[in-house]
Design a protein that fits this description.
The chain is of the alpha+beta class. The protein contains one helix and five strands, in the order ββαβββ. The chain is about 10% helix and about 25% strand.
Amino acid sequence: MITVNGKPSELDAGTTVAALLAALEVPAEGRGVAVAVDAEVVPRGQWETHVVADGAQVEVVTAVQGG
């Protein structure tokens, strides 16, 4: 099981970061998105190839503008 932002996910182990973001409907092509897998930031250039293993803890952070 993959945990995303502290909650169990329906996503299968072996998915890529890019596929995970697509499943979460997070606009990966946009700015202000960061992903960490097991407390290590995954560079944007590796999202298409970085595979998320079973038991991984994933944090997806999006920057929002406001005041």
